[in-house]
Amino acid sequence: MISQEQNDSLTRVGPGSDAGAVLRLYWQPAALSDELMKARPVVPVRLLGEDLVLFRDQEGKLGLIQRACPHRGADLCFGRLEDNGLRCPFHGWHFDRSGQCVEQPGEPEGSRMHEQIKARSYPVVEKNGIVWAYMGPGDPPPFPNFDCFRAPDTHVFAFKGLWECNWLQAMEVGIDPAHASFLHRFLQDEDPKESYGKQFRDTAGNTEIPMTKLLRDYPRPEISVDDTDWGLRLTALRHMEDGRTHVRITNQIFPGAICIPMSREMTITQWHVPVDDTTCYWYSMFTSFTKPVDKALMREQRLKEHRLPDYAPLKNARNNYGYDENEQASTTYTGMGLDINVHDQWAVESMGRIQDRTEEHLGKTDVGIIRNRRRLRDAIAAVKAGELDRLPMRNGGTEALTGPVSNDTIATGGNWHAAAAEADVARRASCPWDASV
Ligand code: FES
Ligand SMILES: [Fe+2]
Predict the structure, then answer these.
(1) Which band of pLDDT confidence, cut at 50, 70 and 90, is reported for residue 264?
(2) pTM score of the predicted model
(3) Ligand 1, atom 1, residue with closest C-alpha
(4) Which domain holds residue 85?
């Protein structure tokens, strides 16, 4: 458990907050490219407690500017997308994608007042289905050469979902390898051939054992954590009765993302980005090694569980996450259906909007969570001291970072990392894009 003061420091994200200052030093997902695929590409974005508007101008370039018009505060999301910018419907002030006011049609002829008016704006770039924003001071850091950024657009599918809780508890479920044996337990195994696009439904490593069975049969993983240049590497070992060991390698990408295996074909790189202190989005990039991603199928699977335009899950606290006691007795551990996203969502939302960490009791399997909080505390201290090069991926060499290796494999010997690396090399070798690490 930690003090209330520490909990506030690690979780709060608005301007001037401790964790918010760290998150602002990294590119954050602001919207899906899909959201801009419409006749009038203008969408509201609430990010790190700030209300913004994202638009694509007539040149096809993106702008991310403050939502409240600098004149008298009207909502620019209703702006007229014209003359290569966004024009406020209230008095016609016109802003370009940098937020500069370029025209005030109601002010006296010859007025140059507009030159002094600039809406707050942030740099944005689009990569593999996600629009990324940099809301920090100075220059943004480079993107690492991770698989999700390096794979061609055909091999990456991006989606998002809204969770009604603080970003840190959302991220912490992703660095907790023990929960999969319980929260995501299926009391019966389905055919792994039906697993496309779903987590924990493939076979484990290079065996015929369904992941669901392996997780169920071996609920006490031995977990170790290593510091890396991008964050943390988590190794979860499940020692099997026949002497073999299931090795699962997952990663935390500082400060708010994880990279985990989904199936033998795909990994998931998932950001947990704050909308504000008490709401966040997950943004996932599903990256396929060999075949192009079936985006239509992946989208259809997920749109069945979410409503647009805010990507809020249809199962939520208001309908008890679809909880069914008969299902809980016979089919799943949670009684909340087969979609593991709903299980995670229940776990992190049911803690309360901001988990009260003064009341928790962390165990041995929480080592990833403990190590990550320590790293976040160190980063907060470094930002306060103005020593940004103490932060992961703010200190050179970021563009050379690859992978990160995330996989499930079965090992016979004791060198788990070598076994994982070997399995990964084989997978990467048959990849049509350059996935070398
Ligand atoms: S409030 Fe936007 S132009 Fe007046
Ligand atoms: Fe989970």
Answers:
(1) confident
(2) 0.96
(3) 72
(4) 41-123
